[in-house]
Amino acid sequence: MKIIGVTACPSGVAHTYMAAEAIRKACKERNIEVKVETQGSIGCDNYLTEDDVKSADGIILTKDIDIQEAERFKGKPVIKAFAGDVIKKAPQIVEKLVQYLEQNK
């Protein structure tokens, strides 16, 4: 299974990167392949390629602000959450996405 994500917040600083790290940690604890793009104050880091998106089973997006180029995820299962919730509850958010993916194979 592969999960990708994009995190961003209004200031584009701490919460953007903390949310990305929380997703990475929660996925690694479950042995789930993961890649997370950050859209922060210094620009986009770890950009998700077309191949990353095609090979992803599901996607986690923060919804504090609009994600740039969100149309590239059309047709993929997506969970949206506030960056603060992702930081605090990443394992539960990952679990929710995994359960959805398993039920909708």
Automatic annotation (TrEMBL):
Protein name as it appears in the record: PTS system IIB component, Fru family (TC 4.A.2)
CDD domains, A to Z: PTS_IIB_fructose (cd05569)
Keyword Transport among UniProt keywords: yes
Species in which this protein is naturally found: Alkalibacter saccharofermentans DSM 14828
Keyword terms: Kinase, Phosphoprotein, Phosphotransferase system, Sugar transport, Transferase, Transport
UniProt key word Transferase: yes
PTS EIIB type-2 domain mapped to chain residues: 1-99
Pfam families named in the record: PTS_IIB
Entry's Gene Ontology molecular function annotations: kinase activity; protein-N(PI)-phosphohistidine-fructose phosphotransferase system transporter activity; protein-phosphocysteine-sugar phosphotransferase activity
Gene Ontology terms: biological process: phosphoenolpyruvate-dependent sugar phosphotransferase system
InterPro entries: Bacterial_PTS_Sugar_Transport (IPR050864), PTS_EIIB-like_sf (IPR036095), PTS_EIIB_2 (IPR013011), PTS_EIIB_2/3 (IPR003501), PTS_IIB_fruc (IPR003353)
Lineage, opening ranks: Bacteria, Bacillati, Bacillota, Clostridia, Eubacteriales
GO CC terms: plasma membrane
